[in-house]
Amino acid sequence: MELLIFNSMSIAASWDSIIAICIGIAFGFVLESSGFSSSRKMAGVFYGYDFAVLKVFFTAAVVAVIGIYYLDYLGYVDITKLYIHPTYVWGAIIGGAIMGVGFVAGGFCPGTSLCGVAIGKIDAWVYLVGLLIGIFIFSELYAFFEPIYNGYSLGNVTLIDSFGWNPYWIIFIFSIIAIVAFVVSDIVRKKIKKVFY
Amino acid sequence: MNTEKNTNSHIYWNPYFGGFLLGIIIIFTFYLTGRGLGASGAMKSSVVTIVDKVAPTHAENNAYYSQFLNEDETPMNTWLVFEALGLLIGAFISGSLAGRIRWRVQHSPKISSKRRLVFALIGGILFGLGAQIARGCTSGAALSGMAVLSSGGFITMLAIFGTGYLVAYFFRKNWI
């Protein structure tokens, strides 16, 4: 079991899996209720007929980053001790680009495909099989992908380390960008022919 | 689609409400565990486990699988696998309450089920491959990365959505 870092309270390690399942239940419930078990709703973000993905995704990111930095400011969380997703520049770009094509082709991402699987979408089951095959291909050809996977590493850096910006300004500007994106998405959606699904 | 019997089944939450709750879950997860959410990690563990069961020597000799194999423990006993099980349960509860549970292939009326399934398979393969190269998917890399302002999280998010918009034209027949 991976070690969990607990702040200001101690919970026995045997609770790890229970906590994981509970967080997963909340995660799955919110994703499904927001319509992410439907590939046609998800794909709408790329064609302008439904921006639920953009709205849910950016609202979640903005709320999370504000909340985490606020907890850090109040002293409940030490942001330097949190796990920062590592930056492998070309891995992120190439991997992200391949995921982008997969997203438009399949209409799901891994988390949302599990939502589709849970409510009986056969396309989600097939997508999940595809995911396993994709991971298998990567692992078997690891020697080929290894230079991108392990190369161009910058370590566990944040935008603050990369550009020397003030975190509060980053969060403020990020929130403004999100709000502008929401407004623009509503304007675009009104102009685009409705798609029923 | 007013012809469908259960019209409620297509009514979803307000996206800002869903996003807000998702943000709170991410904050709670970071607070409690020090790390964010993830989805593709559980699938990686599944692949490692399957390969290890079918061809143990092959798995040990492979430089990728062997990173996740341990003498005493199965790779399924990780936080992300339990989280993914929870995700399935949570989605099932939500789908049950809204009456959305039934076997079906969802696709645009302009394409056949078979075409939808072929593209779902291709999409899954690409996403699985890309998520390994980028060390995480939309949940683990992009969303949880952005929540702590990780540079890699922002790059991954821009790459996923940027490429999505670039190639959307070629896949339009499947969706609109």
Could you characterize the architecture of this molecule?
The complex is a heterodimer of chains A (197) and B (176). Chain A is mainly α and 197 residues long. Helices cover 69% and strands 3% of the residues of chain A. Chain A is built from 9 helices and 2 strands; from the N terminus they run αααβααααβαα. In chain A, strands 1-2 form a two-stranded antiparallel ribbon. The termini of chain A are far apart. The model of chain A has no long low-confidence stretch (mean pLDDT 92). Chain B is mostly helical and 176 residues long. Chain B folds into 2 domains: 1-102, no CATH class; 105-176, no CATH class. Helix content of chain B is 64%, strand content 0%. Chain B is built from 8 helices and no strands. Chain B has helices at 15-33, 40-54, 56-61, 79-98, 113-133, 138-147, 151-167, 172-175. In chain B, helix 2 packs across helix 4 (79-98). The two termini of chain B are 15 Å apart. Classes of the chains: A mainly alpha (197), B mainly alpha (176).
Tally of strands of chain B: 0
> What is the makeup of the main sheet of chain A?
2 strands, antiparallel
Uncertain spans of chain A: none
Unreliable parts of chain B: 1-5
Spatial order of the strands forming the largest sheet of chain A: 1-2
- Strand segment tally of chain A: 2
Helix content of chain A: 55-70%
Mean pLDDT of chain A: 92
Order of helices and strands of chain A: HHHEHHHHEHH
Radius of gyration of chain A: 19 Å
In helices, the fraction of residues of chain B equals 55-70%
Q: pLDDT average of chain B, as an integer? A: 92
- Termini separation of chain A comes to 42 Å
Portion in beta strands of chain A: under 5%
What is the gyration radius of chain B calculated from CA atoms? Answer: 19 Å
